[in-house]
Amino acid sequence: MMATTILPVPVATPIKRKWGDTASVTLIDGETKTKFHIHEAELFKVSPVFKAGFGSHFKESSERKMILPEDDSELFNLMVEWLYSHRYDMTPSTGDEIKDGARFMEPLRLYVLADKYAVTGLKNCIARTIFNEMKQGGMTGPSIGVVAYAYRNTPQTSGIRHLLADFHACNINFEWYEQPTTKSLLQKYPDFATDIILSFAQHVANKDMKNPFRGKMPEVYQEKE
């Protein structure tokens, strides 16, 4: 009797990584004590801050555990979700001007968290997401509170600042600048006022320069990974 040859069963989705024996670390939110068990290879690849922290001679390195006392668990969960999906989506527009302006707060808070741990890939993903939302046109931009938060918590060279300044220089009705709250914002955050003026000047000086929200996203909104 001839032996029957058993052919291997084809796998529908090719295996790209072997997760079974991959080392992991535990990150613990200080407020809620939520534990995040993350594959260290994935984490260290995107965050030099965590890589350095777990590679040091401190107890975090030996215990493979780190407590994050200042981080919000829901926000950190979004960062972990991006870590494995490399995708971030904003809350859809509701048509309500106040709610639509405030919905930019989550991505800006996530951007600041990503900046804290030097997760440049997530920062660029958020910048692209916000840009694509603004590019749709006829929509409510970030609220004054969101802009204030961004300028209070990001460095001067941040790409997200360029994005916000260009949006307010090229897409906002001049009536916005006459509002008392706007004047107060520009006085309190002179860097924002300066960035808007520079954006205005660039577009006035260069007649060939188009509205950045009517084409491909400018590279200045992103950072080198």
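That was protein one. Protein two is written in the same sequence-then-structure order:
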Amino acid sequence: MAPQTSIPVAANVLGTIGTVFWCVQLVPQVWYNWRKKKTDGLPGLMMFLWASCAVPFGVYAIVQNFNIPIQVQPQVFCLLSLVSWTQILIYNNGWRTWTASLLATALGLFFGGLQAALILVLRPLYDRGISWPMTLVGVVAAVLLAAGLIPPYYEIWKRRGRVVGINWVFLSIDWLGAFFSLMALVAQETFDVLGGVFIFLELGIFASHGIWLVKTRKLRKQAKSEGKDFDDLPEARRYQDTRAEKLNGSRPSSKGSDQYLATELQDLERGAAT
């Protein structure tokens, strides 16, 4: 496929809308992490792979001369992913702020240099009609993009379908950004499989949590009637701890077990008093 020299107006409009969404997509997640001062359930590997994905994704868009908004998207995506990754290092892994920030900055500079080098090498080849290197770049981008969504699915599986640590505003904006970007490419009479894969994998996260809400509706109703959070309800903790027990060699998580034992002891004490 030859580089695109004429960009339809619709593609620029849709691409701009997608870029606006993607420019702010991770802001809610970053704010959520900062406010909670924890990132449980948000895998660091997810953000690292997403930041890495921006290198081939950016090369793929720039060399093929996609519209400017879509060329900018990978750069913004990389920056926001690195910020969130830095928060995970600080809040979840106990890194010092300056150490984590310096590492993320160095990594960002490395990614930028690598992307520039690949563009300089691959653009002349693509202009001469040699397209297989760009196909390889697209495959690498797809693999990294898909791999970035595997860690969240593992966290979801551990919690029996429940999504924890991922901000829903972020996920919704991110999905909209991917959708409008994909529509921008459709307006250019092409279709990018990368965008399609991204959209359906994120829909799976929404679907998983929706199923969890249906399965736990009685427990959540019970917790509400007792004036408790879901995680403070012993029955809910036992339900959530099932897979944790398997992963830990049939050893339940200490928090859930301690709460359950405390409740049982209180019941015994009440019975003895009467």
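The two ends are 83 Å apart (CA to CA). Keep this in mind for the problem set.
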